[in-house]
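User: I'm curious whether this sequence folds into something compact or stays loose and floppy. Could you predict its structure so I can see for myself?
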Amino acid sequence: MKEELMAQVLPILEKTKEGILKAVEIVQAEMPELIQQVLAWNFTISLIGCIVGWVIFVLGICLFQLIHKEVKDTSDNGCQAISLALLVPGLLMGVLNLTWLKIAIAPKLFLIEYVTNLIK
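Assistant: Here's the prediction. I'll summarize afterward.
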C-alpha cells in the first residue's frame, strides 16, 4: 500500500519540482525588465508630482502678487489667504516628491528601499 502510494506521489512531486524550476527561470529572465519598469514608473510619477507642486507654488505666488497689487485695502485678507493657501501644499508637493532625483542619482539605493518597503 505504501509503495503504491509512493509510486503515485513521486511523479506528482517531480512535476511540481519542474514547474517551480520553470517559474524561477521565467522570473529570473523577466527581472531586469521588471526593475526597469519599476524605476521608470516611480521616476515618472514622482517627477509629475514635483512639477505640479512647483507649478501650484508659483501660481500661488503670482496670485498673491496680483491680489496684493489690485487690493490695497488690508482689511480684505480673504483673497490673500487663498493665494497663501496654495503656497504651502505646492511647496510640500515640490519638496517631498524628490524620488525622481533619488532614482536618477542612486537607483540601487532606491531599489533597496523599495524592496524593504514591500517586505514590511
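Summary: Residues 35-119 form one domain. The radius of gyration is 28 Å.
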